[in-house]
């Protein structure tokens, strides 16, 4: 049973890297804001020109910064209850989705006002793929992992709990919960087996969003300053630095998320509960299950 | 000692995913070849126009396909000796570096012939960062992991072995080997602690290379067919599909590389050797070391 013991305290590197990731994330937003403010005229929804600038700001805040931070919460708040961490994780993802949706509406409305065609560039293809899969991933998360962490999908906790996710997600969760209730043995094992795939897909979508942001930076530069870009004008250099900051933010975050020793350890009460539930649903004894 | 036991045989999914990754990788090269051949006039070194087309082909074959496959070999050839796998890993990386270098020379020569400026775009900044770090990573690999897997850096295997890496790398390896020989206790623990960082950095560089390839596709399209790109001309659609194939190749490869259960297990003789060596250098008993 030694792998169930509470692991050693986090090394100092973890705290510094989390601080570095947040500094890089804020630097990304500041540099992007400076680019839009100083060189692209600022943002304004009711404008045929400036409405476009809402798009990069919202997409980077939503699909990069908030999505990235949502992935971090399980490791950063490792000593909080699973329920609180789940709520924060869900809230950050929901906020990221809403902000990204505003960014998408901004660019489609701008294209409509200017009679520009939609969805022809590699940036738009990657972006719409990332956004669509992100919506699916969030619905999936609500279905498989929504709830208080007390196996509510199989009805074991009575009424379940409200994780502030969308109404559709909750309905889906309870529909699948009904299936799990009818076949309780499925719930625990399916969720356990599904979790690593869900985590991989989360990191994949975050990286795809980052790559889409890089494509967006280059596309905007080649549309707006194609002739002066090669002369190392300040706008081009600033936007390139923004690209490198995005890469650095992604690298630090991915490093924190992939270090085995910084995984969130199961708390004592979660361990006891999951073992009991496994015994209940799989007819297995806690001692024999290891 | 249960974590030292030989794990269960690979699930069928592994074989299918490796096959899928190779199919996607070959599809990437074919689609890129078709793009260059059909729409960009083919390739020719002694040409002021067609020399450019050597660049995307070499960079994708070297920095994406071969670099990706080099990362896979430890998992695919899991039952071969560590020495053979290391040689294949090193050969693929060395081949990738040489091919990528040809691709870099092609684009710099093309720019010189046409009097185009160098290194101003986000694609070139990300590309040169990826290539430089890749060279450093390979030198580092030769220093820390080069050899037959029998702790040759500390002189335990006599003359060491030739991994077909570059001369500089071998000199560096033996210089550091000398340091390790003087302080043998450092070698085993430093290399064990460094390995996960080396693996993370390898996957990071592969993903950065992929993102650079996406930027390169978009940059070439906006330079060559900017006005017709938005009309969904066949060249634009083909290049966008190439971008999605690159994303799919990266996703499948990253999935295979990050599944814990598909890690290469240490073979019986490696286990015995590493335990003996640890005992020898750290004054630790095999029984107490677990």
TrEMBL record, chains A, B:
Protein name: Uncharacterized protein
Species: Sphaerodactylus townsendi
Lineage per the UniProt record: Eukaryota, Metazoa, Chordata, Craniata, Vertebrata
